[in-house]
Design brief:
Elements: H1 6-16, E1 20-24, H2 28-41, E2 45-50, H3 51-57, H4 59-71, E3 77-84, H5 87-95, E4 100-103, H6 110-126, E5 130-135, H7 147-151, H8 157-167, E6 171-174, H9 194-203, E7 207-209, H10 217-225, H11 238-247, E8 249-254, H12 256-272, H13 279-301
Parallel strand pairs: 1-2, 1-8, 2-3, 3-4, 4-5, 5-6, 6-7, 7-8
Amino acid sequence: MGLVPSKSVLDAANEGRYAIGAFNVNNLEFAKAVIGAAVEERSPIIVQVSESAIAYAGMKQITGIVAGLAGGAGVPVALHLDHGRNWATIVQCIANGFTSVMIDGSHLPFDENVAITQKVVEVAHAAGVSVEAELGKLAGIEDYVVVDERDAFLTDPDEALAFVEKTGVDALAVAIGTSHGPRKFKGEPVLAIDLVSKIKEKVGIPLVLHGASGVPAEIMELGERFGAAWGGSKGIPDSSIVDAISRGINKVNIDTDMRLAFIASVREALWTRPEVTDPRDLLKPATAKVKSVAAGKMRLFGSAGRA
């Protein structure tokens, strides 16, 4: 089928009230795992690549891997730049076959975020490429005790409406209290789920949830059994993700859960099979573990069977 713009799959998810998994990849193994899961689950998928992943794998190399796998997948696959902040990198992604880019101006004042987003939208849309932007800052809510201070990090619904009207973005990442990485919360997760409904009512377009990994206990246990030092890691419960999707989230970003699964599998193989000399004997089970995680997310998000 080849690569498609993320707008096509996200608009369908918006209409059908489900979410598309957006899975970060850095190499061949992760790309094969997540696209393989999409094929088995008959799910549309967004494959994400960060600026650091491009620096690691190479622009043409990672694009070639994803495009090659997508060509024979038979399901819609979008190739998306995650958290783009460098103008030159965004333009290079558009020129090299990415079908979707994110401009992350969430660290900027509102007007500056609008201005850089407008610039990206103009260039990307002219090339048929979808654009995601972000409004608000990701940080676990419990880290901020004072309500006014806490709310300053969350996405304001009225600002979201003004932002979307001024920029014409295809999707908007919102801050409701999630955060990146495995150690999202010191205690129990607290999210402003009700904000999703308020923002959705204002803007109508597909909404994106970053920092949404669940950090499953079984993967944590497996990794720590074979030497990982992951104490204190805690993610987002599945029930909260389902609730957020029901309120208007249409794209859910997943990275940490796959990393943990991959590393836990490699640790297990190194520990239990000391005779191994072929790297493929370590990477194959790790790839399968990542594939299993991705497939489970597709079922959770409601995208399985939608392709």
